[in-house]
Amino acid sequence: MKTQEKRRGAKTIEQMFASQAINSSHDNPFGMARVVVVGGGVIGCAIAERLTLDRHEVTLLERDQLGCRASGAAAGELSPHSEAAGGTLESAVRSLEMFPELVARIEKDSGVRVEYHLQQALQPALNEKEAAKLRASGGRWLDAQECRSVEPSLTPDVLGAVLRQEAHITPPRFVRALARAAAARGAEVREGTPATGFMVADGEARRVMTPGGAIDADWFVIAAGPWTREVAMGAGINVEVRPQRGQLALLNPGATSLTRTVFWSSGYLVPKPDGTIVAGSTEEDSGFDDRPTVAGIAKLLNFAWRVVPGLGSATLERTWAGLRPVTPDGEPIVGPVAGIANLIVATGHHRKGILLAPIAAATVAAAIK
Ligand SMILES: Cc1cc2nc3c(=O)[nH]c(=O)nc-3n(C[C@H](O)[C@H](O)[C@H](O)COP(=O)(O)OP(=O)(O)OC[C@H]3O[C@@H](n4cnc5c(N)ncnc54)[C@H](O)[C@@H]3O)c2cc1C
After folding, report:
1. C-beta contacts of 297-303 below 8 A and 24+ residues apart
2. Cα maximum dimension of the chain
3. Which CATH number fits the domain that encloses residue 49?
4. Ligand 1: which residue has its CA nearest to atom 35?
5. Domain check: are 255 and 337 in the same one?
6. d(CA 14, CA 225)
């Protein structure tokens, strides 16, 4: 029932690309519109940045601070193959291909370096069953000896691994660069400004309410992560999205080194440019509680120690957690909602929101043209 509501209410990324010509009474001869984007995470900021390219007049509302939630907490892996959840492989690969151009544009316009770089990733197998599955999954297969020669700190229990070329970015910088680039092209970015409701009349949203007053616009985009449900309720729309907690630990590896990202079922170890290693990540239903826990961090540390035994002597620098926006079927919701012609929702990017931000932004831009 709830999934039906979602399917009825908004289009998937693939559907949007299949029908990019969306007519709207808000079209004008110059193709410009006034757009309010609610939510200053990576999705809202990427949308704002993309819309300013089309010369739309954009106002971005962030309740707290830009990137203060999952988007600032994320590890920064741009890995289409790593986990099943968070959109299709095709859309993830397409979004990854959009990064070089996007990064060049926002670094130039914002003056912020986002530390984007290509990075190899290894997915090791510990038993024959895993090995058979991974060999069939694409990428280059390395046997046990090759594995240890490219990544000597891996446990000797590894039977082999798939090696893939992926990429990495620093999420808080990415969010900041997107917002600054949008602002440099005229967007108004308002932090500390929550959307508290909408005025809807005759099947159209007319204005969004904030504590500082109402804002009129032609289009409204709700990209408030797991809070999208609460925000959309303000327009009488039900969006099936919930929070899922993911915890992370930052390790200082001392003498142990890792040069490639290592994936392991739902876990990963990500070497950062400064030599530290991020160990992630849990998947938990904790409501809107985004504090790390003893059990969650213990699980991550055990995993890290098992895969790279030398990390037993690493020091624990920091722990933190974020709330991923998750839909019932794990697919993002990006597109206009049923019943309100000029209201768009963009959420549910689960474990791949950083990776999928460019394609989400392009999808929304296609709807507003
Ligand atoms: C531990 C962890 C690791 C991750 N690692 C990766 C990774 O390596 N690669 C990857 O691609 N993805 C990763 N992800 C997933 C990614 O972080 C998310 O999918 C993505 O950040 C979601 O972005 P968002 O903009 O939809 O939501 P959010 O980041 O939650 O942003 C929503 C924003 O809306 C604001 N807001 C809420 N209510 C209102 C309101 N009423 N008015 C105005 N603003 C409002 C919030 O304050 C928030 O800033 C990870 C997630 C976690 C938790």
Report:
1. 297/247, 297/249, 300/247, 300/248, 300/249, 300/267, 301/249, 303/264, 303/267, 303/279
2. 67
3. 3.50.50.60
4. 39
5. no
6. 20
Q: Is 296 helix (H, G, I), strand (E, B) or coil?
A: helix
Is the CB of 249 within 6 Å of ligand 1? no
Question: Percentage of the chain surpassing pLDDT 90?
Answer: 82
Query: Pick from 119, 156, 158: which is nearest to 141 by CA?
Result: 158
Q: pLDDT band at residue 85, thresholds of 50, 70 and 90? A: low
Residue 180 maps to a domain: yes
pLDDT tens across 203-235, in order?
999 999 999 999 999 999 999 999 999 999 999
From 36, 62, 291, mutation site for ligand 1 pocket: most ligand atoms within 8 A of C-beta: 62
Ligand 1 pocket mutation pick from 13, 45, 71, 333 by most atoms within 8 angstroms of CB: 71
Banded model confidence at residue 15, pLDDT cuts 50, 70, 90: very low
**Does residue 271 share a domain with residue 314?**
yes
Please give the order of strands across the beta sheet that includes 197-201.
Answer: 197-201, 204-210, 213-216
38 lines ligand 1 (CB under 6 A): yes
* 357 CA to centre of ligand 1 in angstroms: 10
Query: How many structural domains compose the chain?
Result: 2
Residues 4 and 41 placed together within one structural domain of the fold: yes
| 26 within domain boundaries | no
User: Based on the domain organization, do 206 and 342 belong to the same domain?
Assistant: yes
For residue 322, the CA-to-ligand 1 centroid distance in Å is 8
Same domain membership, residue 265 and residue 299? yes
Say which CATH number the domain at 142 has: 3.30.9.10
For the Cβ of 332 lying below 6 angstroms from any atom of ligand 1, the answer is no
Looking at the fold, whether 249 and 318 belong to one and the same domain comes out as yes
Question: pLDDT-based confidence at 98, cuts 50/70/90?
Answer: very high
Exposure class string for 102-137: b at 16+ Cβ within 10 A, else e = bbebbbebbebebbbeebebbbbbeeeebbeebeee
Q: Find residue 263's DSSP bridge partners.
A: 268
Q: Which domain holds residue 5?
A: 1-18+31-116+169-241+327-369
